[in-house]
Amino acid sequence: MGFAEARRSVRHRALARDFVTAASGMFAAGQTAGEVVKTAGANFAEPFGKEFREMVTQYELNPHFSFPKAFRALAGKYRLPEFEAVAAILEAASTAGGPRTAGKGLSRLGLALRQKERLLAERAKALAEVKIAGYLIVGLLLIGLLVDASALRGYFVGLGRIVIAVASAVAVGLIFAMRKLTENKDLEGAA
């Protein structure tokens, strides 16, 4: 389940990065937020295509609709800080500068997102060898423990049971320690 969630998160981040890049060009060309989101709704893959179309519908029906609020809600729903940054840029551009300022801000955000993605990928590659070595060692220990508990059961009678229990506890402790040491919350979405 964690692997499927990580893949979905990677896909959502890539779509958000693509939106930022596309929106920066459209804003730089002088389009309004409504036009940009409408174009994105027509061209982006799900789930964001649907979300953008719903934003446009709300924009057309509600005179008090705010794109920054909608992007903040989208950021919370999909746990994507990229959309929170888009909301802040749109809010600042609506106060001063207009669409061209939004285009410049989104362009800088797009550069930062691409750099972040590159750095996370480099760090994930660096940690891959450590993870492989850890899983290999823990796997060998578990195989040894399984052989001891089944084929060599005769050696573990009496006080030997304490030895096998301690060995099991050490193996479980190593599993948790390895998972904790190789866990990086910021890399989960980059793999």
Please provide a written account of the structure:
With 191 residues, the protein is mostly helical. The protein is built from 7 helices and no strands. The longest helix is centred in the middle third of the chain and has 52 residues. The radius of gyration is 25 Å and the shape is elongated.
Briefly, what is this?
The chain is mainly alpha-helical. The protein is 80% helix and 0% strand.
Helix content: over 70%
Radius of gyration (Å):
25 Å
Q: Determine the number of helices (DSSP H or I, runs of at least 4 residues).
A: 7
Q: Got a strand count?
A: 0
Largest sheet: none
Q: Average pLDDT value?
A: 85
How far apart are the first and last residues' alpha carbons, in Å? 15 Å
* Fraction in beta strands: under 5%
H and E string:
HHHHHHH
Tell me the overall shape: elongated
Q: What structural category do the secondary elements indicate?
A: mainly alpha
Low-confidence stretches: none
SSE inventory with pairings:
Layout: H1 2-28, H2 33-43, H3 48-61, H4 67-78, H5 81-95, H6 99-150, H7 160-181
Helix pairs in contact: 1-2, 1-6, 2-3, 4-5, 5-6, 6-7
Task: Please name the defining characteristics of this protein.
191 residues, mainly alpha, 80% helix
